[in-house]
Design brief:
270 residues; mainly alpha
Length: 270
């Protein structure tokens, strides 16, 4: 035989509510009145005794409680299974900032091209100016003609490089500007919400609200939720009628018997 499941911590508030309901029933109130102990102190005493014996009382509804736990675990497993793909899709979907930063982070060399496009013409132009100036001065002085010719040749070469790289940089800037202008904006237009009007003359209203996003499909979610609620109600009914109320009757009967015994002993002593 399998042992009955113990009362879990999250179900103790339900047990206390069922106990409170049992203490307020007409049967228990009348029994307290017949025994002459209908005050709040006696009710609190019964409540404390029932809470102490909660595990023993709960065993009276062990089959219903086991069915309720199974149904609740199955619903939780189904909900986690349904949440898994959606959570994975959300975590795998790139954000807008990541998409915008992708050209700079994934293609590491691509961020170097703009710097080269700016620095190369500037350095080549400065070198050309320096070479041409030195070569011209040496040619004017008439000394070291070979060095002057070499400097003038290097200056012309640097000037050519500066012109070519400057033109290439301008072309890249124009292409980039055209590409950004033709690309669609990041923000997508918000969908237009149409008024809640059914096109058919005889609409079929939905009897239940839709579950929150990321949960199971509507019908499966409502079916599991209703099954858990049904199993919980069955457990609470069994707990009330087979566990708590019989326990309270027995304690009231014992209290009434002890009261009568004490009264008889007092009469006999007098």
């Amino acid at each position: 035989m399998t042992a009955s499941p113990g009362l879990q911590a999250e179900d103790r508030p339900d047990f206390e509510r069922a106990l409170h309901q049992a203490l307020r029933t007409a049967e228990i109130r009348e029994a307290l009145g017949r025994s002459g102990s209908s005050g709040g102190t006696d009710i609190q005493r019964l409540r404390s005794q029932a809470l102490v014996e909660s595990e023993a009382i709960a065993t009276a509804a062990a089959p219903e409680y086991a069915a309720y736990l199974r149904q609740r675990a199955a619903a939780a497993a189904a909900a986690s299974t349904a949440l898994g793909p959606s959570a994975a899709a959300v975590s795998a979907a790139p954000t807008a900032s990541a998409v915008r930063a992708a050209p700079f982070t994934t293609a590491g060399g691509r961020g170097l091209l703009p710097a080269l496009a700016v620095l190369t013409p500037a350095l080549a132009g400065a070198s050309a100016a320096a070479f041409l100036l030195l070569g011209g001065l040496l040619r004017l002085s008439g000394s070291q003609r070979e060095t002057a010719d070499a400097l003038l040749t290097a200056g012309l070469t640097s000037a050519t490089i500066a012109a070519v790289t400057l033109a290439a940089g301008m072309v890249c800037l124009v292409v980039t500007a055209v590409r950004h202008r033709s690309s669609p904006p990041d923000r997508q237009p918000r969908p237009h919400r149409r008024p809640h009007a059914h096109p058919h003359p005889h609409p079929h209203p939905h009897p239940h609200p839709h579950p929150p996003s990321g949960s199971q499909p509507p019908y499966a979610w409502r079916r599991d939720d209703a099954a858990v609620a049904t199993a919980r109600d069955a457990w609470l009914r069994a707990l009330l009628h087979r566990g708590i109320l019989p326990f309270l009757r027995e304690r009231l009967k014992m209290s009434h018997t002890l009261s009568r015994t004490s009264q008889k002993s007092e009469k006999g002593s007098t």
